[in-house]
Amino acid sequence: MTVVSAAVPALDYVFHPRSIAIAGVSAKETPGFGGGGFLQSLQDIAFRGPIYLIHPTAPAIRGIKCYPSLAEVPDDVDYVISSVPARLVPQLLEDCIKKNVRVLHLFTAGFTETGDAERAKMEQAVVARAREAGIRLIGPNCMGLYVPASRLAMMQDQIAEPGPVGMVSQSGMNASEFIRYALPRGVRCSKVISFGNGADLKAADFFDYFADDPETEIIAAYLEGIQDGPRLARAMRKAGAAKPLVILKSGRTEAGTRAANSHTASLAGSLQIFDALCRQAGALRVESLEELVDTAVTFQFVKRLAGPNIVVVGGGGGASVLAADDLDAAGLKLPALLPDTQETLAKVTAEAGTSIRNPIDTTSLWLEGGFEATLRPCMEAPNADVVLLHTAFGVGFSSRFGDSRARMYEQVEVMTRLQKESGKPIVVAIRPSTQVDGFTQTLEFQDLCWRAGIATYPTIARAGVALANLLRWQAMHD
Predict the structure, then answer these.
(1) In the beta sheet, which residues pair with residue 152?
(2) Contacts 24+ apart (CB under 8 A), 85-92
(3) Domain map of the chain by residue range?
C-alpha cells in the first residue's frame, strides 16, 4: 500500500526541533490557550529540549525563566511559537533572523483573514522577509504541529505514542478534533499540521512531505480553499499515488464558502473541479470530520477488503433491518448465507425471534460458547468478505447475561483468533450507551478491540460508509 522515498524529505527538520521559544505567554494567563496553552501542552507531552519564554517584563512564568526578547536568549533556538499581537510579528521575525531560527509558527492571527488590505500587505511582507532569510513559516492563524515522536503538541491530552496517520488541516479546531476523536479508536499519528492561512507553507508542501515521509502511511486532510491550484494538483497526485489520501473539503455551499473565506482567507473554488482533481489523484473526498476519522480507522486497521460482501451479526431485529438498508445504501452487499452456513448456525441459534440468513439476529452471542459458534461460520462463509458485529453495553442482552466485563475480554480474544485464522477482517459497531456504566464499558471494549487490531465504529451506518470508502480507494488503485 505504501511507497516511500529513501531520502529524508526536505521539510523533515520542521518536525524535529531541538529547542523551542514561545513569545507571548502572559504572566497572568491560565493554561489552556495561546502561549500558555502551548507551554502546558509541551510540558504535558514532555518535550525533550529546552523551552524558552519571551516576555518583556516578567522574570519567570510558571517557574521558567523569561527573556525580554528572543535576541537575548543565550542559546540556539530552532523553532519559535508566536502568540504576540500581529503588529509585533515583524520585530519578532527580525529577532528570529538574528538567532538563526529555522521555523516560525504564527499562532498569531489578524492578517489576511481579516479582509483588511493593510493587514494582508503586512502578511505578505512578513513572508517575503522570512523567505529572504531562509525561515519557514507555519500560519499565520493556526495551531501548528502535533508530532508525537518529537514530543510536540498543539493542545493538551495529545499523547506521545506515534503511528501511521499524517493529517494536514487549515483549521486548528478540526486538526485537534480529528486527534480527539481518533485517539480513543486506536488511530495514532505521525504528524498533524494546522497551517491556517498558509502564507508560506501550504497544503501542497505538506502533501509533498507526507508522500515521502517513511513514518506516514495514510494521509488525511481538511482543506478550506485551493492555494496555487496547479501545484496543489501535482502534490495531490504525488501523495495519492504513494499512499491512501482522504480529504474533507469545506466550502461545498455558498454559506461554507463565505465561512472559509473569513476563517483562513481561503477561496473555496468549484467542488466539481475539486472532485475531478481527487479522481485524477486517486484520492477520496469525504463529507464530514466523522467520516474522515472513520476512514482513517479503516485504512489503519482493516487495510484491505477482498470484496463488498458483508455479513452482519448482532441482537435486535430492528437494528439488523436498518443495518441492511444502511450498508446497501453505502454500496456494500449483504448476500444470503449459503445453506451449509445456515445449517451450522441453526444448531446454535434458537428458532423463535431470530434470523440466520444475513443479517443474523440472534441471542446466542451471549450464551456460553455461543459467540464463537455464531461468528465462526460467518467468518468461514465463502460468500463473506467481512463480518460486522454490532453490540451495545448497559442495556438489553449485554446487561442480563453474566459478567459483561469478562465477556468482552472473551469476545475480543475470539474475534482476534478468527480474524487471524480466516484472513478476513471483523469490524465492530458499538451502539452508544446512555448510562454511565454502559458508556464506561463501551470505551473499555473499544480500547480492547483496537489494541487487538479490530476497527470500531459508533454506528453501523458509519462503518458501512468507511468500508465502502476503502473499496472505492482499492478500485482506483488496483
Answers:
(1) 147
(2) 85/110, 86/110, 86/111, 86/119, 86/122, 86/140, 89/122, 89/126, 89/140, 90/122, 90/125, 90/126, 90/129, 92/23
(3) 12-138, 144-301, 310-477
| CATH assignment, 12-138 | 3.40.50.720
**pLDDT tens digits along 276-298:** 999 999 999 999 999 999 999 99
How far, in Å, are 6, 218, 298, 452 from residue 293 at the CA level?
29, 12, 9, 19
C-alpha cell belonging to residue 362: 440472534
Rounded distance between C-alpha atoms, residue 249 and residue 239, angstroms: 17
Beta strand 165-169 pairing with 218-223: parallel
Amino acid at position 307, single letter = G
Phi-psi region of 426 (alpha: psi -120 to 50; beta: other; left: phi over 0): beta
CATH number among 3.40.50.800, 2.40.10.120, 3.30.200.20, 3.40.50.261, domain 144-301:
3.40.50.261
Q: Same topology for domains 12-138 and 310-477, yes or no?
A: yes
Q: Is the pTM of this model over 0.85?
A: yes
Strand 386-391 relative to strand 103-106, pairing: unpaired
